[in-house]
Design brief:
The complex is a heterotrimer of chains A (305), B (333) and C (305). With 333 residues, chain B is an alpha/beta fold. Chain B is 32% helix and 24% strand. In chain B, 46% of the residues are buried. With 305 residues, chain C is an all-alpha fold. In chain C, α1 packs across α4 and α10 runs antiparallel to α13. The chains are: A mainly alpha (305), B alpha/beta (333), C mainly alpha (305). At the B-C interface, α2 and α4 of B face α9 and α10 of C.
Chain lengths: 305, 333, 305
């Protein structure tokens, strides 16, 4: 018995560095092999850089109204100018600059709301999984309720009550997207709690905190990253939808959904106003989905099917 | 032995799987005959290619697998060459098959009776009513009482033994000339295994069906088979009638298999097992494929692949059968 | 069966209670609607009278009690905007939304099932790549933007279809295609993966070994097994469908629940918001229940205990 134990632990130790080395190799190998993963990574990097340096990159002041330049078409069409590459809107504002600035809002909403969602979900999942009983029941009913009604309904009520705005939007998206995380963490806690070594260490008085940091977090971290990536895509789409409905980001703050909505009434005269922000959203979300799929294949083969 | 007596002739069959990690040569040049009314057992460890051989006969190999070479002659047709539509007429009609796991092998959303009747309707010129009547008869024949009631049951509501009886009824529904049974009792309780084997023997006598029995269980072989084919690493390593094989096994691998089978009347403390494992099928060794595990290997065996040697009744793929080689070469360490 | 139904209906109660509480709590938090209801120069006495008439001077829990009892009687109060009871206004809009949801679901199913099956059978073929690409693109594209692009193409450029309003079947075409495409994206992916899993099953091999023809193999042996997951998938898309309908209705100025709700949120018309949330939530819950009951019809293995 004793001998067996040593052998097993030696095996584990021996295999560790090999496994780590392998997984880095594997990631790179899979990245090169998966063309979509590579495309996704490139898109996400470009969009992030644009978002961070939006002010520096925008060729014009995105809010500068110019009556001389109303509804200028994109550069490649007749009447277009190279300076206003994607054309101008109904107030003569440079569309490219507006889309570049809009990137920032999309990224802020996407990342912040998912950070909040992850935090809430993690806490609820841990509490629910660890304490079980009434608390678990309560939170799981809450999860069911959130799954039973479309998220956007909840968002509409909250936005109706508190009024639209960047902060409300981030909070309300965060408050609806935590459910996935809570289930993920709870499931992991439940399965780890049942393992013998955790049972043993609990009877020996190991603090729950130690169990959380040593056993649970390392186990959920990869699923967490994968879920987060895909959730950011969802959050960006939600932000765009709500801003389009006029319930999200409010002018003068610029968002893709807002630009799109502004162009809705000028489809006949200036189709580009509504078209290009949509393409920006689609490409961004596509990039994130590609990246997320690749990350899932690399980090969490369990989730693949 | 005349050709009229042969029901199926497999010649130099090669079935390979083209995977990302290379070509897996799961079946690498297998030949054997199945005579009419004969039970041929194919034995070997898992991964030896016995199931792939049996699936190849009915062309059930899915991509990335492919029959690369060889022929399977049945009633003057080469099953590897005929059109898919012709193959469909053979499947379930002339040659049928039962599988290891009856629960997953039966379609869960159809009544078992309808699944039997489907085979009959596919291959016989009868109407639905007639097919149902025949199905119920078949259910009775495989020893199911209350056949009318079972006809309307779904697979999940039957026991494991019942399900396998249904599978057998389905396989025999068109009086096939050959029945392929892939580990038909492995997934069943020990107490049910004997019943299913007895049933198969009885039915074989009644219908005169040839059986190709795929198994790793030498106990089943002793009970059922007329002829035994031992496979190792994608090849036939020994073939003979069942009595000769059990009495006088010649290949070290066959000997190892027999020694690792428990014998009721011999009280031994320990079962011997064959050390090591089968080499990788994507990279077979140059010499004898059993070399790494063989207790009687010669230096000669490492570099030279043995051919099948022996007479019509007993052939062995082993250099020990070649006296000259044995004389010239020494035992390897 | 009746027992199961009763159990499921009882399970709805906590979800409804949760929704009631959220809706009540948010409105309670917002505070006094009286200020909005009376002119700015109203006398203090009038304000007091209205407050007690609306029972706003009672403690929170008592107010919640009144609220629940009103909700049970279908009384959500009067709409600020329409000056009438909110529930009838909401219910009047329901048929339009249900029609849109239904036609969209049909379009989604007509796209997703054949596309999913074909791409599963011809795995890794050009068709499969195309279908998978379409499905990912459909997920990345905001549905409201797709709607606008359809308006641009069919309404503005070719002028063959009406782009807003309600009344004839032609009004339904573009909104249904918009919403149907959005829903079909995820559905196609799920049908494909389910069909792939089914084609790997042992019973498919058995069927081949019996000599079953390819078409019958896929449609009879394969698809009947896929029905249960496909129905699940269909109903899983209900949330997407409802959320999508809300936004799509606004894009096409289609007079359904979504348009009403978005207007109510912009105008903070609480009675309408509350009534609409309840109606939509109950609709979603009932559809999910219907899904559960349908499973039994298609899968003999499922028993209701």
């Amino acid at each position: 018995m004793q001998i067996n134990k040593i052998e097993v632990s030696e095996l584990v130790e021996d295999s560790l560095p090999e496994y780590k080395k392998n997984s880095v190799n594997r990631m790179l190998k899979l990245l090169i092999k998966s063309k979509t993963g590579l495309i996704g990574l490139v898109i996400v990097l470009i969009v992030t850089i644009i978002g961070i340096f939006a002010e520096q990159l925008a060729p014009f002041d995105p809010n500068a109204i110019n009556p001389m330049l109303i509804n200028k078409p994109p550069a490649w069409l007749e009447g277009g100018e190279f300076a206003h590459f994607l054309g101008t809107d109904n107030l003569g504002r440079d569309l490219l600059s507006r889309i570049i600035i809009g990137t920032k809002v999309s990224l802020i909403v996407g990342v912040c709301s998912i950070a909040i969602a992850g935090f809430i979900g993690m806490i609820i999942g841990l509490v629910s999984g660890f304490y079980g009983g009434f608390i678990d029941n309560f939170f799981m009913r809450l999860v069911d309720s959130f799954l039973a009604i479309p998220n956007i309904l909840f968002m509409l009520v909250v936005l109706g009550v508190f009024g639209p705005g960047l902060l409300t939007l981030i909070l309300v998206i965060g408050a609806t997207q935590w459910v996935t995380y809570a289930r993920l963490v709870r499931g992991e806690v439940l399965s780890i709690k049942e393992r013998d070594f955790v049972k043993a260490s609990r009877t020996l008085g190991t603090k729950d905190r130690t169990i959380v940091f040593k056993h649970i977090l390392p186990n959920v971290i990869s699923s967490f990253i994968v879920v987060s990536t895909l959730s950011i895509a969802t959050a960006i789409l939600l932000e765009a939808s709500l801003s389009y409905l006029g319930l999200g980001i409010q002018p003068p703050m610029i968002s893709w959904g807002g630009i799109l909505e502004g162009g809705r009434n000028f489809l006949a005269t200036a189709w580009w106003i509504s078209t290009f922000p949509g393409i920006a959203i689609t490409i961004t979300v596509l990039g994130i989905i590609f990246l997320g799929d690749w990350l899932r294949d690399v980090l969490d083969p369990r989730l693949t099917k | 032995m005349t050709m009229e007596n042969v029901a199926l002739e497999v010649k130099d069959l090669k079935t390979f799987f083209h995977t990302e990690d290379g070509v897996v040569k799961a079946v690498d040049g297998v030949s054997f005959n199945v005579n009419k009314g004969e039970t041929v057992a194919i034995v070997g460890e898992s991964g030896c290619g016995k199931s792939v051989t049996s699936f190849s006969i009915l062309r059930l190999i899915k991509a990335p697998g492919k029959i690369e070479e060889g022929s399977i002659i049945f009633e003057n047709k080469d099953l590897t060459k005929i059109k898919e539509s012709q193959m469909r007429d053979v499947r379930g009609n002339d040659i049928s098959m039962i599988f290891q796991e009856p629960l997953t092998s039966l379609n869960p959303v159809f009544k078992v009776g309808d699944q039997i009747a489907e085979t009959i309707l596919l291959h016989q010129d009868v109407d639905k009513k007639e097919a149902k009547k025949k199905s119920i008869e078949l259910l009775k024949k495989v020893g199911i009482g209350r056949a009318e009631q079972i006809f309307n049951s779904y697979p999940h509501s039957l026991s494991g033994g019942m399900r396998q009886r249904v599978m057998i009824a389905m396989a025999l529904s068109c009086n096939p000339k050959i029945l392929i049974a892939d580990e038909p009792t492995t997934a069943l309780d020990v107490s049910i295994q004997a019943q299913i084997l007895t049933l198969m023997l009885d039915l074989k006598k009644e219908f005169g069906t040839s059986i190709i029995l795929i198994t790793h269980d030498l106990g089943v072989v002793a009970e059922m088979a007329d002829k035994v084919i031992v496979m190792y690493a994608g090849q036939v390593v020994e073939e003979s009638d069942v009595f000769t094989l059990f009495k006088n096994p010649k290949h070290p691998y066959t000997k190892g298999l027999l020694e690792s089978t428990p014998k009721v009347h011999e009280l031994e403390d320990e079962l011997k097992s064959i050390p090591g494992s089968v080499p990788s099928a994507s990279n077979w060794p140059k010499g004898c494929r059993f070399y790494s595990r063989c207790s009687m290997r010669l230096n000669h065996c490492n570099d030279n692949a043995p051919e099948l040697l022996g007479d019509e009744n007993h052939i062995v793929r082993c250099w020990l059968q070649n006296e000259e080689v044995v004389k010239q070469s020494e035992y390897a360490k | 069966m009746a027992k199961y139904l009763r159990k499921r209906l009882l399970e709805i109660i906590p979800v409804l209670l949760f929704i009631t509480f959220i809706v009540f709590f948010l409105v309670f938090w917002v505070g006094d609607p009286v200020a909005l209801m009376l002119p700015e120069d109203a006398k203090q006495e009038d304000i007091e009278n209205l407050r007690s008439a609306l029972k706003l001077d009672e403690p929170m829990l008592v107010q919640f009690g009144y609220f629940v009892s009103n909700v049970v009687q279908g009384d959500f109060g009067k709409s600020f905007r329409y000056g009438e009871d909110a529930l009838p206004i909401v219910l009047e809009r329901l048929p339009s939304t249900l029609t849109l949801a239904f036609t969209s679901m049909i379009i989604a199913v007509l796209i997703a099932i054949p596309a999913g099956i074909i791409s599963a059978i011809r795995r890794n073929s050009a068709t499969d790549v195309f279908v998978t690409g379409f499905s990912i693109l459909g997920k990345a594209m905001p549905s409201f933007w797709l709607g606008i692009m359809l308006i641009l193409i069919f309404g503005v450029i070719f002028k063959i279809l009406p782009v807003s309003g309600n009344g004839t079947w032609a009004h339904l075409v573009l909104p249904s295609i918009t919403l149907g495409t959005a829903v079909s994206a995820e559905m196609t992916r799920l049908v494909r993966s389910n069909m792939l899993a089914i084609l790997q099953q042992d019973y498919i091999r058995t069927a081949i070994s019996k000599g079953v023809k390819p078409l019958s193999l896929i449609l009879k042996h394969g698809f009947k097994n896929a029905l249960v997951p496909v129905i699940t998938i269909m109903f899983l898309q209900i949330s997407t469908l409802v959320s999508g309908a809300l936004v799509t209705e606004v894009v096409f100025a289609y007079p359904g629940l979504g348009q009403l709700l978005v207007q109510a949120v912009s105008g903070r018309d609480m009675a309408i918001i509350q009534a609409a949330i309840f109606v939509v939530a109950i609709m979603v819950i009932l559809l999910n229940l219907l899904a559960d009951l349908l499973y039994k019809v298609f899968d003999p293995r499922i028993k209701y205990n």
